[in-house]
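FAQ

Q: What does a record look like?
A: Structure on top, sequence underneath. For example:
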């Protein structure tokens, strides 16, 4: 499966624009992480891009979410490494994150929400003016974007990244696609 096929499949299965943007952001950060860590950028990007493809199909049923996504990824011809990363990003199944790719997707998923929220509280509601240090401050405010699980974001240490480094990389990656995100 290449990126174009993945996008086609997303458009066929996901209506919510914000969910599609979340997947594009996750892709961008995963690509940046792969570049930094010397991993396969296409593969890591693909895992990020399709990881929530089943959210609307499963209608919020968390016991099915990511299981169906993993099946879909396999059907589309994704590598088993991508399939596993998709599956274990939802902890409900008790499938542990084992590989670097698994762990990268797991910590990246909630970071997107934290950074997006940090942009949306600005008067201009734009990413451009967001600084890494302000995201870091928001990280410490537990009630801010509470759904963005801090512990999960901080698990970036499992792939050898300091939190500050991870936030900076994520923010830069998001700024790189800000136009597409209309953010
Ligand atoms: Fe996600």
């Amino acid at each position: 499966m290449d990126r174009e096929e993945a996008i086609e499949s997303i458009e066929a299965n996901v209506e919510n624009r914000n969910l599609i943007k979340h997947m594009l952001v996750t892709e961008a950060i995963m690509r940046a992480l792969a570049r930094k860590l010397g991993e396969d950028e296409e593969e890591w990007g693909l895992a990020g891009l399709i990881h929530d493809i089943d959210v609307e199909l499963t209608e919020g049923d968390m016991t099915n979410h990511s299981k169906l996504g993993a099946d879909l990824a396999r059907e589309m011809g994704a590598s088993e490494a991508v399939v596993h990363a998709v599956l274990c990003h939802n902890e409900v199944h008790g499938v542990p994150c084992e590989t670097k790719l698994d762990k990268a997707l797991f910590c990246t998923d909630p970071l997107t929400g934290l950074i997006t929220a940090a942009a949306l509280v600005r008067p201009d509601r734009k990413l451009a003016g967001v600084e890494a240090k302000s995201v870091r401050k928001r990280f410490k405010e537990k009630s801010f974007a509470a759904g963005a699980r801090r512990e999960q974001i901080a698990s970036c240490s499992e792939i050898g990244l300091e939190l500050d480094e991870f936030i900076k990389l994520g923010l830069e990656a998001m700024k790189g696609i800000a136009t597409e995100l209309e953010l």
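Q: Is there anything notable about this one?
A: The pocket of fe (ii) ion is lined by residues 22, 26, 51-52, 109 (CB under 6 Å).
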